[in-house]
């Protein structure tokens, strides 16, 4: 019964709304929007879309940045995984990087690599710069800054997924056996470990690919401006005062969905080719020339990327307390807390809204995830592949492809636009990440604990509350912290489902990043990054305090 309730709730509140959103977007793309008086199906919307200047380049830039980000993130994560897989400090180091919202990190990276950024200030004495150089290091036409910003966030995510996947295979035994045969370390990972690890990280890789192809907030901050990426172009079309532009925007959303599907099919084709030719290649004893050197370069670049990420977050804090900082000074000439003193006027409303939306959506998603996992335990059956795909569905589809249609469907159902609808929209995207974070620790729970409780006559609900949740307190709180970070980072769901009337720290930060005072932007972006980081800190501190006299429980997870 619990399994049916949970599955029904997920279908009704996540899957069916997404499908309804895609359907409404398809209808609008075909010209069927009665509210605008268009009731005849046709291809006029696609013709209007093709007539938009810069569309072909926007599509190419989207494909280039999305595929390059995914490939680069995968290579860096693989190299770092080979070198750091047995480092216990790695997950703690990745926590602040994963917690920082994409927009906040992109703003900090812009402060770092801009022509007047900190890196240019460091290089100014050597280059003889007395004015910021005329270099397009941000918003460059080839999207290199966008690739850098996306990789800074996505490669730690893939690295964490790889480290989690390694726990599900007999890694130590495989490494010992292969090393005894005298095989090079990098070759062992490529031919023995990677084929077992790939099925465990395939969906996360597709998630990164779909997100990188259709990201909006980071592309607005770091990406090309004229023309922008396809997703940014469509977002502007949806916000155009001329309502007839909604039809070509919907057609563009269908095009965005096609791009993601085609890229996913490309990954599937590459996987099939490796599966077909790989075993014979390995059996013949072939080696990849320079594989060890490639691994070392990937580790070095991964370490540099983490340093850049930390420096980007530090730039937010520095600019938030800067009063005067002239180029080419390396450090601010004058510091002031004046803008933090005005933080209440600047960001009090968005901060309160962000907290309410994040707490409510994460609480709902965490409740659903615990109920799903508890239902799996009671059925004593492994999760079916279709259920895994169901969980990942909101992440595998580009948001721009169904959020506008979801908004139309919600209005048609009589749901008012506002905070409640935004909470629901955030929960759709928070739930998959909470499930990803909680599934492995839940499955790793020692089955003897609930069995012992059941042998004493304790019912399943009491076992859940008195045994499972206390033992899994660290993973549960970590999943909650991840949910908060995901909710805080949501831009498009807030923009579409809030109809522009719901302002969060993310929407405010993206707006300010387009040309506001860096000090004001630094305060808002710092607040945006601080919320998830503090939540992560609480997720580690609460169990340490609660189980200070129970060392084993405090270290769980």
Descriptive overview:
With 557 residues, the protein is mostly helical. The protein contains 25 helices and two strands. It has helices spanning 2-29, 44-50, 55-84, 89-99, 102-113, 118-127, 144-166, 171-180, 185-214, 217-222, 230-238, 246-283, 291-320, 338-341, 343-379, 385-396, 403-412, 419-443, 448-455, 460-471, 473-489, 492-497, 505-513, 518-546, 551-554; strands at residues 322-324, 334-335. It has a two-stranded antiparallel sheet. Helix 11 runs antiparallel to helix 12 (246-283) and helix 15 packs across helix 21 (473-489). It is globular. The mean pLDDT is 87.
Helix/strand order, N-terminal first: HHHHHHHHHHHHHEEHHHHHHHHHHHH
Secondary-structure class: mainly alpha
Rg over alpha carbons: 24 Å
Report strand %.
under 5%
On the 0 to 100 scale, the average pLDDT is 87
Multimerization state = single chain
The tally of helices reads: 25
General shape? globular
Helix content: over 70%
Number of strands: 2
Sheet with the most strands: spatial strand order = 1-2
For the sheet with most strands, the description reads: 2 strands, antiparallel
Instruction: Flag low-confidence runs.
Output: none
Query: Between the first and last Cα atoms, what is the distance in angstroms?
Result: 29 Å
Quick recap:
This protein is mostly helical and 557 residues long.
Structure keywords:
mainly alpha; two-stranded antiparallel ribbon; 75% helix; 557 residues
Which helices and strands, and how do they pair?
Blueprint: H1 2-29, H2 44-50, H3 55-84, H4 89-99, H5 102-113, H6 118-127, H7 144-166, H8 171-180, H9 185-214, H10 217-222, H11 230-238, H12 246-283, H13 291-320, E1 322-324, E2 334-335, H14 338-341, H15 343-379, H16 385-396, H17 403-412, H18 419-443, H19 448-455, H20 460-471, H21 473-489, H22 492-497, H23 505-513, H24 518-546, H25 551-554
Antiparallel strand pairs: 1-2
Helix pairs in contact: 1-12, 1-15, 1-17, 2-12, 3-7, 3-9, 3-13, 4-7, 5-7, 5-13, 5-24, 7-9, 7-13, 8-9, 9-12, 9-16, 11-12, 13-24, 15-18, 15-21, 15-24, 16-18, 18-21, 19-20, 21-24, 23-24
């Amino acid at each position: 019964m619990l399994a049916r309730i949970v599955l029904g709730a997920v279908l009704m509140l996540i899957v069916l709304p997404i499908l309804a959103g895609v359907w409404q977007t398809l209808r609008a793309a075909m010209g069927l929007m009665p509210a605008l008086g268009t009731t005849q199906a046709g291809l006029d919307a696609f013709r209007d879309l093709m007539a938009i200047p810069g569309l072909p380049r926007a599509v190419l830039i989207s494909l280039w940045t999305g595929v390059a980000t995914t490939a680069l993130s995968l290579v860096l994560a693989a190299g770092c995984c080979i070198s750091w897989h047995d480092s216990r400090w790695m997950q703690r180091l990745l926590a602040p990087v994963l917690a920082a919202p994409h927009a906040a990190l992109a703003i900090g990276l812009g402060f770092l690599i801009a022509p007047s950024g900190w890196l240019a200030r460091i290089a100014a004495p050597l280059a003889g710069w007395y004015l910021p150089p005329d270099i397009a290091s941000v918003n460059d036409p080839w999207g290199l800054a966008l690739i850098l910003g996306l990789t800074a966030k996505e490669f730690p995510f893939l690295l964490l997924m790889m480290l989690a996947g390694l726990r599900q295979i007999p890694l130590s035994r495989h490494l010992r056996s292969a090393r005894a045969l005298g095989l090079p370390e990098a070759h062992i990972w490529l031919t023995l470990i990677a084929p077992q690890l790939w099925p465990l990280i395939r969906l996360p890789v597709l998630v990164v690919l779909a997100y990188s192809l259709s990201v909006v907030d980071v592309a607005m901050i770091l990406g090309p401006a004229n023309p922008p990426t396809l997703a940014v172009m469509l977002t502007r079309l949806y916000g155009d005062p001329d309502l007839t532009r909604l039809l070509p925007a919907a057609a563009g959303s269908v095009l965005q969905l096609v791009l993601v599907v085609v890229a996913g099919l490309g990954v599937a084709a590459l996987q099939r080719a490796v599966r077909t030719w790989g075993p014979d290649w390995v059996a013949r004893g072939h080696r990849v020339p320079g594989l060890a050197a490639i691994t070392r370069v990937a580790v070095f670049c991964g370490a540099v990327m983490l340093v850049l990420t930390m420096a980007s977050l530090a730039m937010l804090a520095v600019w938030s307390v800067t009063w005067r900082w002239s180029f080419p000074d390396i450090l601010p000439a004058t510091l002031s807390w004046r803008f933090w003193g005005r933080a209440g006027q600047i960001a009090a409303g968005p901060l309160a809204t962000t907290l309410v939306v994040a707490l409510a959506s994460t609480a709902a998603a965490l409740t659903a995830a615990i109920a799903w996992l508890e239902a799996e335990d009671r059925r004593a059956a492994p999760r079916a592949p279709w259920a895994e795909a169901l969980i990942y569905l909101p992440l595998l589809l580009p948001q721009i492809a169904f959020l506008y249609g979801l908004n139309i469907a919600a209005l048609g159902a009589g749901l008012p636009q506002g905070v409640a609808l935004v909470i629901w929209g955030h929960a759709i995207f928070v739930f998959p990440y909470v499930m990803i974070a909680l599934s492995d620790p839940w499955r790793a729970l020692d089955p003897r604990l609930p069995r012992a409780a059941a042998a004493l006559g304790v019912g399943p609900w009491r076992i859940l509350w008195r045994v499972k949740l206390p033992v899994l307190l660290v993973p549960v709180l970590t999943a909650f912290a991840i949910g908060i970070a995901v909710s805080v980072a949501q831009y498009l769901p807030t923009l579409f489902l809030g109809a522009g009337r719901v302002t969060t720290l993310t929407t405010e930060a993206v707006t300010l990043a387009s040309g506001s005072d860096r000090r004001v932007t630094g305060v808002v972006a710092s607040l945006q990054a601080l919320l998830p980081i503090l939540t992560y800190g609480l997720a580690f501190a609460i169990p340490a305090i609660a189980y200070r006299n129970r060392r084993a429980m405090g270290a769980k997870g």
